[in-house]
Design goal:
- By secondary structure, the chain is of the alpha/beta class.
- Helices cover about 50% and strands about 15% of the residues.
- The chain folds into two domains: about 50 residues; about 100 residues, Response regulator (Rossmann fold).
- The chain starts with 7 loop residues before the first helix and ends in an 8-residue tail after the last strand.
- About 15% of the residues are buried.
């Protein structure tokens, strides 16, 4: 910005000051851009390093699932068979592993759930234990209280505990 009534030296000084301010602003702007780029690179590198070193602990390569089927057992053409088919697909497509039991009496539910929760005869715990059928609600409720760090799920019933996922279907909307 040059005034009309300024002397040559005054005008030159003002233009020089204005130009140096513009250069400083440009340098500051490019410094901020460079800082932002460096911060983004650090975040990306930290994320990659974290995944490489912590990934196996955070994301197990082979989730382990245990299933306690309903007393109808496999071949019921219902929840048991659907769950078995899903577990088999997860094993083939994603490398999951699963174990299961087919109780013959309702009285066996709690025993099997506790065996899986305590990972009896197994080196590692299960990532998830699934109960198939509403008639396992009582046994699951008792077992889940004793194993608060174990994740459970139940199909066809609601059990209100923080470590139990209840899977209920709107059967009236099935068609």
């Amino acid at each position: 910005m040059v005034e009309k009534s300024c002397s040559y030296k005054t005008c030159l000084a003002r233009v020089s000051i204005s130009t140096s301010r513009a250069r400083r602003r440009k340098r500051m702007s490019s410094n901020k851009t460079m800082l932002a780029v460096v911060v983004v690179i650090i975040i990306v590198v930290a994320g990659v390093v974290g995944i490489v070193f912590l990934g196996p602990m955070l994301f197990p390569s082979e989730p382990r699932v245990a299933i306690v089927f309903a007393t109808g057992g496999l071949g019921d053409k219902s929840f048991n068979d659907a769950c078995y088919e899903g577990a088999t697909r997860a094993e083939q497509e994603f490398g999951w592993s699963f174990d299961f039991v087919e109780p013959t009496q309702i009285a066996e539910y709690e025993e099997f759930l506790r065996d899986f929760a305590a990972h009896e005869g197994r080196e590692t715990a299960y990532d998830l234990i699934i109960s198939i059928g509403f008639d396992q609600a009582n046994a699951l409720n008792l077992t889940a209280k004793d194993y608060p760090d174990q994740d459970f799920a139940i199909v066809d019933m609601v059990v209100d505990q923080p470590n139990i996922a209840s899977l209920v279907f709107n059967e009236h909307e099935g068609s």
